[in-house]
Design goal:
Glutamine Phosphoribosylpyrophosphate, subunit 1, domain 1, mainly beta
């Protein structure tokens, strides 16, 4: 698979929707993840990321303008022991709760499907990072309608063992802007991961469409120790 530039992928797509990047830093020391949200409607754009324990949650920037919280207010990131869960919806809680009961990432997601937001039927994208005793692996998932047909749910899981330094994978909800919005297709894109947490955060944020970007979360987890650093960027301030 050809390695793509994350910067180019983002700059070339005005509306990838919500996106998850997971990989390993170029120096091999860090497990890396980024999660961003974008919005076209006032309701979607009226959000910020805030820290919540070891994870984050979305909240309304201006509560008086919040019209429907059902699909936009959730915890995108939660930490369960040595596992970091990153998703684009409340399936974060499903994964956390069922993995806490010894079910697998894939088993937990079997209980969920794409979002009920006709006619888009937005895919649910999820990732999980496992960092323990100097070892690191991750998996990503997408649950999507069958080419816009809500009668069928297509489920894909991709697992990456012993990730290579400087490499990551990028999955997002929409192929491009449109009406209805076309769901992501294919396996997660192979992208390069470079720079420290601040330069990586800056590169991703500056590559997102200025009109549509809302918030960005980035975390670097030290593979040897499990210690992490986090960056949050919100357009609304």
């Amino acid at each position: 698979m050809k390695m793509l530039s994350l910067e180019t992928e983002l700059k070339g797509n005005s509306y990838p929707g919500r996106g998850i990047v997971i990989g390993k830093s170029a120096d091999g020391k860090y497990a890396v993840t980024a999660y961003f949200i974008m919005g076209r409607s006032e309701n979607s754009r009226n959000r910020v990321f805030v820290e919540d324990g070891e994870g984050i949650r979305t909240q309304a920037f201006d509560p008086s303008k919040l019209s429907d919280p059902s699909l936009i207010i959730y915890a995108p990131v939660r930490v369960l022991g040595n596992k970091t869960i990153v998703t684009n919806g409340d399936q974060t809680d499903t994964i956390y709760e069922l993995m806490d009961k010894q079910q697998t990432f894939e088993q937990a997601l079997r209980t969920r499907e794409f979002e009920p937001d006709a006619p888009n039927y937005t895919p649910r994208i999820s990732g999980i990072m496992h960092v323990e005793n100097g070892n690191y692996n991750y998996a990503m998932s997408i649950l999507k309608s069958n080419n816009g047909n809500p009668e069928a749910c297509n489920r894909y899981t991709f697992a990456y063992e012993n990730p290579v330094a400087g490499e990551g994978h990028f999955i997002h909800t929409y192929m491009e802007d449109g009406n209805p919005l076309p769901s992501f297709e294919g396996e997660p894109k192979l992208v390069g991961i470079d720079g420290d947490i601040d330069s990586f955060t800056e590169k991703v944020w500056n590559s997102l469409n200025e009109d549509n970007k809302v918030s960005l979360f980035v975390r670097y987890i030290e593979i040897e120790t499990g210690k992490y650093e986090t960056r949050i960027v919100n357009k609304n301030k």
